[in-house]
Design brief:
about 50 residues, two-stranded parallel ribbon, alpha+beta
């Protein structure tokens, strides 16, 4: 299933903090599922902050 944004060629970045908490785990799982379904691509902002 593709969103309208992916059909228009826009680059969608999905940022999820996968930290050590339960909420981090849930956000990571949601980001993986959205990426798998084609809504965008997962991106880690931590790599850019170093």
């Amino acid at each position: 299933m593709l969103s309208q944004n992916s059909m228009t060629g826009e680059n969608i970045l999905i940022l999820a903090c996968s930290g050590g908490s339960n909420v981090g785990r849930l956000s990571n799982q949601a980001a993986v599922e959205l990426t798998t379904e084609g809504f965008g691509k997962m991106f880690c902002s931590e790599a850019n902050s170093l």
